[in-house]
Amino acid sequence: MVEHRIPENLNEALKLLYHGDYQVMAGGTDLMVQRRSLSDTPLDFPKNMVYCAHLQELRGIRKEAHRVEIGAMTPLEDLLCHPDVPSLVRRAIGEMASPAIRHVATLGGNIANASPAGDTLPVLYLLDAWAELRSLAGSRMILIRDLITGPRALKIHPEEMLTKIGIPEMHFSHETFVKVGGRQADAISKVSLAAAADIVEGKVSDLRIAFGAVAPTVVRDETLEGAWEGATLSELKVGVWRLLDMYVPLIRPIDDQRSGKHYRHQVALNLLRDFIESLSEPTSEPGR
Amino acid sequence: MANVNFVLNHTPVAVEGGLNRRLLDVLRTDFGLKGPKEGCGEGECGACAVLIDHRIVNSCLMPLANCEGKDIVTIEGFSETERFTVLQKAYSECGAVQCGFCTPGMILASESLLHANPHPTEEEVRIGLSGNLCRCTGYNMIVKAVLLAAKEGEGLW
Predict the structure, then answer these.
(1) DSSP-assigned states of every residue in A151-166
(2) ipTM (interface pTM)
(3) Given 3.30.465.10, 3.40.50.300, 3.90.190.20, 3.40.50.150, which CATH number is that of A4-168?
(4) Class of A174-278 per CATH?
């Protein structure tokens, strides 16, 4: 018999995780779909469930020096409207789901669900975001790109809970998040791209590229990005085909019910080409 | 077995056990509230929408456990308000109701939007309704109705 528990506070939740085999439920917008069966039938979860969406300790957005910290159970809609949340994160959330889902779906849930098509993931990889994992024994930080090891697979111990997300403050002269889906709302991405560049005095001072839904995990390669550091904007633009070629072996999408691998592969490259071609010398330097 | 306590259409209620049941099933089976409907059952159509703490939510994706302490309003409860009357009139004037299956969800999406943003642009209305599917109207009449309600109901939201 599977247990279902609503803890009063974080400590009680961590005790349950420590002493028993529990799965954490956040907003439920993924788990409730994954385990749905017939109407009017309780959902059949394979593990004990601990429901944590209501825990106030895990909700909220705090601006700290050079970063913003977000409670894992903070609903996406709250991030969408918050000025301290990086614009790229808000942009990705604006493309996600619908208001009804964003009101309950959480940032922690989108990470822990670890879908290759999770729309906050390319942006969180790009921004070097980290997660705080907490257990009764203490807490540790891990980069989100190190936390996620595959579809629905995380490097997290059974007694740990994802409690907080930290996003370093960064400035870019250009940034984008593009999602290709079957419908503007409520679509799961066929392919997505988060990209950002900081062009300073005609030169690439920072270039970051992350693809979603084209491999088992988000594709980001800092070595490839770093190779363009110091290049002039025109060198980057002339070299766009060379840049795209570098990404060809990394983009390894699959055929599934939403799209085909050939389509995904080509569109992913097209999105990156569009971004590079859209780069221009910034006229002013906002946010500096 | 633990109770889940929440306020349903302005009345405090307690539901025994079944934390892994869907709110949609609790509303329809235990409370006989047939306004929220099961369309897709996976959060894509909005026919099961309810308001939780004034914000639209898909009740088919809501485990009962997550309802503890919440203020939940279905179309039945909302229909007693003056804001509903304004929305009803606007929907009627704009021809925004055809078969009616999506209407409870559309009305609650309209209320959720106007509660957060009493003077939405057309684009904002379209985003506000984006989680609700309608297979009859083609949406334009519904968008018009929400804009009309915002005007006619000035001061209510």
Answers:
(1) TTEE---TT-EEEEEE
(2) 0.97
(3) 3.30.465.10
(4) alpha beta
